[in-house]
Amino acid sequence: MSLRGQIAIAGVHEHPTRWAPDKSEFQIMAESARGALADCGLDLSDVDGLFAASMSMGAMGIVSLAEYLNLKPRYLDGTNIGGSSFVSHVTHAAAAIHAGLCDVALVLYGSTAASNRLAIGTGLGGGRDASASFVSPYGLTTVGSYALIAQRHMHEYGTTSEQLAEIAVTMRRHAGLNPAAKMRAPIDVQDVLDSRMISDPLHLLDCCIISDGGGAVVVTSTERARDLAKPVVRIEGCGEAVCHPEIARPDLLKIAANQSSEQAFRMSGVTHDDIDLCTIYDSFTITVLVTLENLGFCKRGEGGSFVEGGRIGLGGELPINPDGGGLSSNHPGMRGIFLVIEAVHQLRDECAERQVAGARTALVHGTGGTLGVAHSGATLILARD
Amino acid sequence: MAKEVKHPERLMAKEIRHPQPTFDEETRAYWEGAARGEVVLQRCRECGTIQHRPRALCVSCFSDSIEHFVASGRGQVHTFTVTRQNQAPPFREACPYVLAYVELEEGPRLLTNIVACDPETVRIGMPVQVDFAPSENGLAVPRFRPA
Question: Could B20 and A139 be called an inter-chain contact, meaning their C-beta atoms sit closer than 8 Å?
Answer without folding.
Answer: no
